[in-house]
Amino acid sequence: MKTAVLCARISPRQKETETNKEQLFELRVFCDRNGVKILSEHKDELGPRGTPPNQHGLKKAIRIACENKATLFVYSLSRVATDIKSTIKLVAQLQEAGASFKTLNGVEIDTSTALGKREFRFLLELTKYFGRKDGIKKATSCALLQKQGVRVGNFVPTGWKDDVNGPVNEKGRPSRMVPNWDERRAVIYMKHLRSRKTSIQAIAKAASEKYPYRGGEWSVGNVRNVLAKPLTYDEMSVEEINEAIKKEKS
Fold it and tell me: Radius of gyration (Cα) for the chain, nearest Å?
């Protein structure tokens, strides 16, 4: 994404979430940090007595993005689309003009990159498979959301921790997660021990001594789940983890 058209919108169903001013601020910060040129900014406010906003700002933002083959950049998908059909229609309209679409929070969509386009197509196929009618969010599996760092439910899966500096949900809890590198190292260590025919009980004890589990010990059940279930993140080597940590600190 090199150029972007920002659009903020208020939903009457989400009165406790960010205002247009706050949305635009977050979008500007992202663009500034990533060297993205902002072409224009647009917003739609609530109508009289809290009625849904009109789409004057959104329509203008789409038009400018299409004319300049830029990226329509919004705070979250819920601000511009209510179901899978409206999402497909919006993205198709932008792509036909050589423009793209990106969200900052929630279900991550970024059709300005080749990878983002593939992920979006995957979301569509997943939606068709499950036969859901109420939008991408419900059609997307929890694992897919978690791989994008979205916190689903009350439990934070192994390999992640709450992003205490990120956005919060309506209950005041972090809505995003960041990698828990010690736990990811622990998972690698467990798999290594298991490959050597080490018992589950011995693995739990050894892992607890080397990589304590959230201030406590790894239980036998924890270890079984880690070894049996698919990870909610892309697996990395210890060297790759160390490199990622260096990048975070730089």
Answer: 21
Please tell me the predicted confidence (pLDDT) of residue 15.
Answer: 47
Q: What is the CATH number of the domain that holds 91?
A: 3.40.50.1390
Residues 28 and 90 in one domain: yes
The pLDDT tens digits of the residues spanning 10-33 come to: 765 554 467 888 889 999 999 999
Residues β-bridged to residue 4: 38, 71
AA letter at 209: E
Q: What is the total count of domains within the chain?
A: 2
Model confidence, pTM:
0.49
Q: Do residues 101 and 135 both lie within one domain?
A: yes
* Residue range of the domain that includes 88: 3-140
pLDDT in tens, 37-77: 999 999 887 766 555 567 888 899 999 999 999 999 998 88
For the record, the structure tokens of 109 come out as 């969509």
15: left (phi over 0), alpha (psi -120 to 50) or beta: alpha
Residue 69: its pLDDT value, please? 93
DSSP string covering 52-82: PP-SHHHHHHHHHHHHHT-EEEEEEGGGT-S
Which residue pairs, CB below 8 angstroms and at least 24 apart, start in 57-65?
A: 57/7, 57/8, 57/9, 58/7, 58/9, 61/5, 61/6, 61/7, 62/90, 62/93, 62/94, 64/5, 64/39, 64/40, 65/5, 65/39, 65/94, 65/97, 65/99
Question: Among 106, 140, 174, which residue terminates a domain?
Answer: 140
Task: Kindly state the DSSP code that residue 160 receives in the 8-state scheme.
Answer: E
